[in-house]
Write a structure and sequence with these properties.
- The protein is of the alpha/beta class and 298 residues long.
- 35% of the residues lie in helices and 13% in strands.
- The chain contains eleven helices and twelve strands.
- The strands form four sheets. It has a five-stranded parallel beta sheet. A three-stranded parallel beta sheet has the order 1-2-3. Strands 6-7 form a two-stranded parallel sheet.
- Helix 3 runs parallel beside helix 4.
Length: 298
């Protein structure tokens, strides 16, 4: 049983935007891959994509309730563009409409920015887990900025111990091992749109990075594996140990953005299960059981 914790879909294709699947295309890909259902995350911040209404996702989930799980997304600048905006009103509204989480939060501000901290505070109070993407810079990118070592994420985990934060994206997963240079965390967008740099580290993990340390220290931190394939597979000895140690807080995801997108993490999990690098129990938890428990699915 695979449950995708991170998918994207648009109601209709949008010119000049990555060609996200429609709901029907997403389900077709799920049928091909053997994925039972998936969480669909709207995009509301305009850093790289055109904003999307939460209602689009709710409409898709209402049409396919057995296959699609709605998430809502709130830009923390909403309502009053201030650090004390009553975002709980919006979050409660969408929670009561059936949304199971918040995200993908990907505007390009520092994690500790007061407006983001306000969003996290309200998400904790309303009881919605938060999926976030990251960046190593402010400007010219999307994703929440954090410093090498993810200190702003750690401060947030400390401030909101009842808030489940789901780490996603290369900036988060680059820190599974100790960084050689900070610029390895993410690619750079040139003015012509070309992505350069950000070469992921390869080879054995000689020293653990902060991600496993944070997972041990903070039970409210989870990891979503759609962008983790390279980070985990780089060391075929450490990778299975990592999955086994944190088997209760890792979640399968695809981050599907277009119909032909390969599901590399799925391929890796199936391979390691077949080769008995991970147990059937570890596989089942990561593939779907953890998502069922976290999101309260039945």
């Amino acid at each position: 049983m695979f449950i995708d914790i991170h998918a994207h879909a648009y109601r209709k294709p949008v010119p000049f935007v990555v060609q996200f699947c429609t709901a029907e295309q997403l389900i077709e890909r799920y049928d091909q891959a053997g994925i039972e259902k998936g969480a669909v995350l709207p995009i509301v911040s305009p850093e790289i994509y055109l904003p999307q209404a939460n209602e689009d996702i709710l409409d898709m989930a209402e049409k396919y309730p057995d296959r699609l799980i709605p998430f809502c997304n709130i830009d923390p600048r909403a309502l009053t563009n201030s650090h004390d905006a009553p975002l709980d009103r919006l979050l409660r509204y969408y929670r009561d409409k059936g949304c199971k989480g918040l995200g993908e939060v990907m505007l390009n501000l520092p994690v500790m920015h007061p407006m983001l901290q306000n969003l996290f505070r309200h998400a904790q109070d309303v009881g919605l887990p938060v999926t976030f993407d990251g960046s190593d810079r402010v400007g010219g990118d999307f994703g929440l900025y954090d410093d090498p070592g993810l200190p702003q994420l750690e401060h947030t985990l400390q401030r909101f111990p009842k808030l489940v934060m789901i780490g996603h994206g290369p900036v988060f997963w680059a820190e599974i091992g100790r960084l050689e240079t900070p610029a390895q965390r993410k690619t750079v967008f040139r003015p012509d749109g070309q992505q350069v740099g950000g070469r992921p580290q390869s080879g054995p993990i000689k020293e653990e990075g902060v991600v496993p340390k944070l997972l041990r220290r903070y039970p409210n931190l989870y990891g979503e594996l759609s962008d983790a394939r390279s980070a985990i597979a780089r060391d075929p000895e450490y990778g299975p140990k990592f999955l086994t140690e944190f088997q209760d807080r890792l979640l399968f995801g695809t981050d599907i953005c277009f119909f032909e997108m390969p599901f590399r993490t799925m391929e890796l999990l199936l391979e390691w299960r077949e080769k008995k690098k991970i147990s059937e129990q570890v596989f089942r938890k990561i593939a779907g059981e953890n998502a069922v428990k976290l999101l309260g699915l039945t």
